[in-house]
Specification:
binds SN-glycerol-3-phosphate; about 15% strand; globular; pentose shunt; about 220 residues; alpha/beta
Length: about 220
């Protein structure tokens, strides 16, 4: 299972990278705005800064909603750095753009997926990644994990190579349950990754080992 971090915060990205388990980064216009990154040139520069911090794929989202605009923006993003994956919205135009880029071997991530049918279309269009939004489904009393499970079944039935990128992950149990289902990738905030380290019995065990060692080596 690949671990991506879902942020545009360079400090958080560097912290996850330093742990040695980071496989990539996802961003979106909201995450960029949260870090105060505005204006086209600053946004493009920020994507390059992120690529220079990590080894894996970095999803960069287009803002255009029409096909021509998506192609222009996506090509510009893809030219920035070899690690860039063009992130496209799950719309009719987005699916057309996904097919355009996959025919040209440019990596894509189809985002804002909330149904198995949408995920099927993304795979048919040759998406590298499809991003079902787990947490946002949970927010509206709908089982987000069930969607991940449905997509896994459909992709496995036909051997689709599109990777399921479980997005809108909010906490550690989302990560663990996605791993049980067989999501290819999860993307979440730093807390969802670092939280996996924690167990009180580990802390108690370490304290005991340290105390016993010190007792025996006075
Ligand atoms: O990866 C998608 C993500 O950025 C959305 O997360 O927490 O805003 O639903 P959230």
């Amino acid at each position: 299972m690949k671990f991506f971090i879902d942020t545009a915060n360079l400090k958080d990205i560097a912290e996850a990278q330093a742990l040695g388990i980071l496989d990539g980064v996802t961003t979106n216009p909201s995450l960029m705005a949260k870090e105060g990154i505005t204006g086209k040139n600053n946004i493009l520069k920020h994507y390059v800064d992120i690529c220079n911090l990590v080894d894996g794929d970095v999803s960069a989202e287009v803002n255009a909603l029409d096909f021509e605009g998506m192609i222009k923006e996506g090509e510009e993003l893809a030219d920035l750095h070899e690690q860039i994956v063009v992130k496209l919205p799950m719309t009719k135009e987005g699916i057309k753009a996904c097919k355009y880029f996959s025919d040209r071997e440019i990596k894509t991530n189809v985002t804002l997926i909330f149904s198995a049918g949408q995920a099927l279309l993304a795979a048919k269009a040759g998406a590298t990644y499809c991003s079902p939004f787990l947490g946002r489904l949970d927010d509206v009393s709908t089982d987000g994990l069930n969607l991940i499970d449905e997509i896994r079944q459909i992709y496995d039935n036909y051997g689709f190579e599109t990777q399921i990128l479980a997005a809108s992950v909010r906490h550690t149990m989302h990560v663990v349950n996605c791993a049980k289902i067989g999501a290819d990738v999860m993307t979440g905030p730093l807390s969802s990754i670092m939280g996996l380290l924690k167990h009180p019995l580990t802390d108690i065990g370490i304290a005991q080992f340290v105390a016993d060692y010190e007792k025996g080596n006075k």
